[in-house]
Amino acid sequence: MNRIDQRTNRALRPVKIEPNVNPYAEGSAMCSFGNTRVLCTASLEKRVPPFLEGSGKGWVTAEYAMLPRATHTRTSRSHHKKGRAREISRLIGRSLRASVDLGRLDGYTANIDCDVMVADGGTRTASISGAYVALALALKSLGLEPDLQLAAISVGKVDGEILVDLCYEEDSKAEVDANLVLAPGGELVEVQATAEQGLYTPEELITMISLGAQAAREIFAAQNAAIKG
User: Fold this and answer.
1) Could you tell me if residue 223 is left (phi over 0), alpha (psi between -120 and 50 degrees) or otherwise beta?
2) Does the pLDDT value for residue 202 go beyond 60?
3) Domain-by-domain residue ranges, the chain?
4) Is 40 a residue whose pLDDT tops 90?
5) Which of 17, 51, 66, 147 could covalently link to 70 via disulfide, CB atoms 3.0 to 4.6 Å apart?
6) CA dihedral in degrees (139, 88, 212, 120; nearest 10)?
7) Residue 84 annotated as binding?
8) CA distance 50 to 62
9) CB 120 within 8 A of CB 167
């Protein structure tokens, strides 16, 4: 199909991950998928939640938020703190915990903050992909590195066709909207796939996962380049 920005169905928007954009955070990255831009920071604290005290483990948690004018019209800050932001925050935290052996973080909490500067679709996937880099850079300060690289990509079904990395206009009319969190070998950390209009088949889900895994290779390369500096 003719996509808005003339990409092929399998092509990502331009991906850019700029490391160390915040001089105060132990790790930080600005992650851009096309016009979507997310500032990701990782802050280390020498403490753990009460339920982990004495366990010999650390913790990774995340908060996701959007700036008021990240979207076409201004939205109040209080609105962004509601259900959607909490759900995405939990997704980011779950995903990043899969990338680290929490036993190696003994006594530390990594607080991940993902702030959407500009939203043009794929904000949660850009958040996860950028937050991985921020976390990896923060772990460096402890002499550690992630145990598992991961990235996230959106895939959807629009006008009957499977598209990778949907922009806002494509996402708003998608029959199916999927978000994948993957490892470099194509293994899955999480799959969110929702039929917005109509249904989708198991075969279509397999196609979405396959195309998403192929496209994610470009994100993994951008992450590696950012971490190496």
Assistant:
1) alpha
2) yes
3) 15-228
4) yes
5) 66
6) -110
7) yes
8) 17
9) yes
Nearest to 229 by CA among 14, 33, 27, 24: 27
The predicted pLDDT at position 229 comes to 83
Helices 123-140 and 83-97, axial angle in degrees (round to 10): 40
37 assigned binding-site residue: no
Is there a binding annotation on residue 124?
Answer: yes
User: What average pLDDT does range 92-116 have in this prediction?
Assistant: 98
Q: Across the beta sheet with 59-66, what order do the strands follow?
A: 15-19, 27-33, 36-45, 109-118, 59-66
Token pair of 81 as six digits: 């703190």
Known binding residue 123? Answer is yes
- Whether residue 176 contacts residue 157, with contact meaning beta carbons closer than 8 Å, is answered with yes
7-13 contacts, C-beta under 8 A, 24 or more apart: 9/161, 9/162, 9/163, 9/164, 9/211, 10/164, 10/211, 10/214, 10/215, 11/164, 11/165, 11/215, 12/153, 12/164, 12/165, 12/215, 12/218, 12/219, 13/165, 13/167
Q: What is the pTM of this model?
A: 0.96
Looking at residue 83, its amino acid is G
What percent of the chain has a predicted confidence (pLDDT) above 70? Answer: 98
Task: Tell me the pLDDT tens digit for each residue of 105-143.
Answer: 999 999 999 999 999 999 999 999 999 999 999 999 999
Tell the CATH superfamily of the 15-228 domain.
GHMP Kinase, N-terminal domain (3.30.230.70)
